[in-house]
Amino acid sequence: MKTEIRFVLLFYIFFQFSGSLRAIEEQTLVLGASSGWNLVGQRRGVAEVSSVRPYPVLLLSSGQASDDPSLDMALSFDEGQPGVFRDKTGNYSLSVSPALSAAGQHLARFGTGAALFSGNRMDSSSAASGSEGPLVAVPRSPEALFSSGQSVKDFTIEFWLFPANAENGEQILSWSATRQSMQGQSTFQRIQCMISGNRLLWNFLDFFASPRDDHRLTLSVTSSSPLIPQVWSHHLIRFDSGTGMIEYLVNGSLEGIVYASSSGGEGGDIYAPIIGSGGSLVLGGRFSGLMDEFRMYSRFVETPVLTKYPPRGGRFRTEPINLGTTNSSIVRIDALCGRTSAIDGAVRNDYTGASGYVFPDNSELRFFLRAADSPYRWSGGDREDDSSWMPFIPGTELPDFVRGQWVQVEVELFPSGDGETTPYVDEIRVTYIADEAPTPPSMVRVIPRDGAVDLSWRASPAADIGGYLVYYGTSMGEYFGESAILGVSPINVGNRTSIHIDGLENGTLYYFSIAAYDRANPPHIGEFSREVTARPLRTVP
């Protein structure tokens, strides 16, 4: 019974000791959290945000693209301060008054900010500066859609609105300019968007002119559904110059339609805008609430973007990470994650850590890696065209063949089914075992012979021994011997623990040391063993 207990205790001690050795061998490289995301290079549709967790996380970007060639004005309000709000297209210059503030990401519909209007059209400081409203946009480029003299064809205006109260008379948008017709008549043209009867009302005053410019129209279109306070809603009005049709959409649904034509419907002469001079666009003149992603296009936008996050998701990829030695074993990769959304000012943050990467709302994270001893072996193309990428589940042990001095990690992020929630990555931990050179063999012994020696040693305890190198020479610590029949120092004896070396000179004292090497390519050569000496001599027959 005592023998059995002693055996169990010895086994337990051995298990704990071997486990601690493994823990000592393992090293961890951290991305994210307090280490930051500097090693993340490529990012597509991904933003780094600091308001979700104590340290910045990577999540899907909700900012809308600005590379549409028909985009005429793009105000994202993501700059953080009203004084630096800008039109991303460069077609319009902006001026703001103290009545305008900037809201943070938790209140924004898209991106990292929104414009916050106080409801006061002018205060003393804005009146003194000559400002017409909280935010005024003036054409600065002759290519701008609303620059003087432009004959406008198709156009679209869209924005997101979050009214505080939705009171009658609140003015959302106002465009005004003056022009002379071809007959010399002076006209004042205007576009108004305002709240009337809990709905948005659009008025076009002398904005559309007949083909001969001798007649102008006043048109109005309103939504059929009420404007709900403290709820984000999308508003889009678009003009088709081929039919004269003006459509008003709220949250993607058609709410109103009128025609800029001589018949008041389909057919007849089509009226079109001719932009006057001295024009300016005022946003939020008497409006209390938030506005986000104000945009104008020189085309008829068929399908507006309504979801916060793109259905195709996004991805990020680290730079090649150097683990220090070739043939390093990547043991596992852990990831700490969650999901977050901000809807109508209410922020939801579900931090799941390492417990899951697919969420009930169908938001999802997918992970890929590749490893090699040289980063130049990778094609560098998209993952779909590169078979070196391997999918993996964070936290699971990786196959032993996942080895290399360099490793890259790629993560794909997909939004929820309704496009309102994004997953995020808080931290990535790469656990690896560097393929260090094997320890030297022990218990090296040498026996002198006639013109030779016999060497033997105990094998190195390393698991991936490829073989041994025998160093010899005639001076302590200097192993430059050349006389042995097996060759000059060092002699590669393969994976064996004894060797007979012929061709040595009798009477000469030789110094020997042995180093182990592993199976890496190229192999890692370990340190020298204890040095031993022997003097070959002729023996008495």
Automatic annotation (TrEMBL):
SMART domains cross-referenced by the UniProt entry: FN3 (SM00060)
Gene3D superfamilies from the UniProt entry: 2.60.120.200, Immunoglobulins
Tell me the domain of life.
Bacteria
- What residue stretches are annotated with the Fibronectin type-III domain? 437-541
- SUPFAM superfamilies referenced in this protein's UniProt entry, alphabetically: Concanavalin A-like lectins/glucanases, Fibronectin type III
Q: What InterPro entries does the record point to? A: ConA-like_dom_sf (IPR013320), FN3_dom (IPR003961), FN3_sf (IPR036116), Ig-like_fold (IPR013783)
Q: What is this protein called?
A: Fibronectin type-III domain-containing protein
Look up and give the organism this protein is from.
Answer: Breznakiella homolactica
